[in-house]
Amino acid sequence: MSVDDTKDSALLLVPGVRWAVARAGIRQSSRDDVAVLECAPDTNCAAVFTQNQFYAAPVLVAREHLQRRQPRVFVVNSGCANAGTGQLGVDDARRICTGTAAFIGVDPEQVLPFSTGVIGERLPVTRMLEGIGQCVQRLRPDAWEDAARAIMTTDTVPKGATARIDVDGQPVTVTGIAKGVGMIRPDMATMLAFLATDAAVEQSLLQNCLRWVVGRSFNRITVDGDTSTNDACVLLATGAAGNSKISSPHDPAYDRLAAAVCDVARKLAQAVVRDAEGATKYVTLNVVGGASEEDCLSVAYTIAHSPLVKTAFFASDPNWGRLLAAVGRAGVAGLDFQKVRLVINGLEIFDRGAVAAAYREELGQAAMAPVDLRVTVDLGMGDQQAEVWTCDLSNEYVRINAEYRS
Amino acid sequence: MSVDDTKDSALLLVPGVRWAVARAGIRQSSRDDVAVLECAPDTNCAAVFTQNQFYAAPVLVAREHLQRRQPRVFVVNSGCANAGTGQLGVDDARRICTGTAAFIGVDPEQVLPFSTGVIGERLPVTRMLEGIGQCVQRLRPDAWEDAARAIMTTDTVPKGATARIDVDGQPVTVTGIAKGVGMIRPDMATMLAFLATDAAVEQSLLQNCLRWVVGRSFNRITVDGDTSTNDACVLLATGAAGNSKISSPHDPAYDRLAAAVCDVARKLAQAVVRDAEGATKYVTLNVVGGASEEDCLSVAYTIAHSPLVKTAFFASDPNWGRLLAAVGRAGVAGLDFQKVRLVINGLEIFDRGAVAAAYREELGQAAMAPVDLRVTVDLGMGDQQAEVWTCDLSNEYVRINAEYRS
Questions:
Q1: What is the full DSSP assignment across B84-149?
Q2: Are B86 and A55 in contact (CB < 8 Å)?
Q3: Confidence of residue B335 (pLDDT cuts 50, 70, 90)
Q4: How far is the C-alpha of B54 from the C-alpha of A286, rounded, in Å?
Q5: Does residue A190 carry a catalytic annotation?
Q6: What is the CATH number that goes with domain A17-274?
Q7: Cβ separation of A328 and B81 shorter than 8 Å?
Q8: Complex ipTM tops 0.85
Q9: Closest by CA position to B381, among listed A195, A366, A380, A53
Q10: What is the CATH number of domain B282-403?
């Protein structure tokens, strides 16, 4: 179930990028589970991967290949994470790359593998290569939505977002897809995101752009605080738009492009939270008045990861004691509750050391009732702020994660 | 519900310490909800309090009083945490101390207040003082068990432990009680622990002893990772045993006493975990082979706080991918999964980079079936280790915390 099924408008094509999908029967025979992306020669690629030290075989191989060549092809599968599989899993990922490279006529190091799904199982390499063989004959510029579906695991909705801006009088497109219903879905998922633009952007600047964007989008969401073994986010720039190549962070075109990529990435990130396991609430945590952005983020994540706060969100319970207890243990040096304010959906609840004068329990319950909650904590220390998006903790979350393999 | 209701043997009296309880009607009229402890003159007192910056009024007042005088009297109530109550709450706590001091004939600064229960509500000071007045007429050395019941909030079992050792040929007793069903029960609880011994111990050494003990007991348990606003742990030493006063950490009697206090504190801490909200499993996390104790603790707490691992415990699911993903995000510098081993209840599951050769899913399910689980993670880096006790995350936990106020 998704908290909100608002569909984005149709995804705009990105000249220079083609996708195809196939049914390889990795886990379920009834749906597409392999997607292949091919991008034009001279496309630049930026990528970030999970920081988890228990990373999956495809993460190891993709990082290695990226250090040597610009990629031309991605192979993405759902149903199997190829994690915890040791050297055999690394060999499997390499065989996928070698086989795909042979089909398309590129170097194996120009192929990047991406997997999500069950941890500890081997990839069915032969069946997958059959599916990949079908894909390479069907590559199309308008298959973004098919790809968004094929990479889903227990996601309930495909996730895509798109933007168009103007660079040098040329229309430039940014389109992205993502999958994931938590920071980790250890059995059947984790987060992948593929973004592409037809803008021409210098390689190292593209990587800077992606890091900046991820810090403001995918790294600002949390469902359960668990970092995945397979997370990856990739940004391609094909250059097909014909703009003069963006090569300086001071170029106004860079700002516009980065803002557009960030807009697409935030929509995808927020779609992940809305589709989170068992979620019934979509919560924006807005921490202001901090002495530093780090302090604001500490407070936001401590709230976001508190099981007690999350169950109160689930219950639509204005349980401000739980919220402030989380603020108080976030480790903010010099925090003084005589200056702290708490506002939920516009209702002031706690004001400098005590419950707000006009606060009544009934007002709190009304403020907590909507599906979308905006919680503002003012630390009263400075002018820094940060925003994080999260969801509630429902008994459906426990059921999904406890009963999954039973 | 408690995971295991094993009763400790009867609590031994501590010469110099008396308790009494009364029904003040703070929240429920049907049970005792105030307890008063009085200790002999010249008793030394060590105490540690919550590190949460959003601490309750009684924590503020108790810390203040401890800086000025050795305490003679504790007043403990359940039903109301007196937290988030601002200056009015501080005034209420002071009135409790002043009134109690008048009843007993001590200085108000010799009275320490302790409260747990609902956050944001005021103490019913007049009704409480009535109850306290009844208590001071009934103080008895053998009321430890009554006190253990009176300080309960939504605990399902009273928690007490006791030990006897020999110092200078004198029998010395250590007895303690505790309440709490999580690191925090924001509405109706949090953790309090009162320990006492009749040994004679120099004051600053007693404080060192308590810090050492808490680091190996109450600070090694976690239910949900939420630090309370009201936590307190106190250790009294009345000196009534007549041993020559222990004044050096090199005195062998100090080691014996510290070990006995630690034994009592661990039993109480483990009783808190067994009675944790919704718990169906009691889990010992044993991390070995670390380069430092800090690394081992990071790994243990990351596992203990992962909702995905905790739901797998609940499901008796040998979901080793979730466990290793938690190990991998614990931030241990230089961790190499080629050296990591995972063992659950004696079954080797993961061995240096891949699933253990002899592992079968059926064996994993059998190993996870018992109520008591022992998870050993060998980091393969050094000879340091740490142990943490925790529980699972059940739908009962969500129900308790979501429906509490509905």
A1: SBHHHHHHHHHHHHHHHHHHHTS-GGGEEEEE-BBTT----HHHHHHHHHHHHTT-BTT-HHHHHH
A2: no
A3: very high
A4: 19
A5: yes
A6: 3.60.70.12
A7: no
A8: no
A9: A53
A10: 3.10.20.340
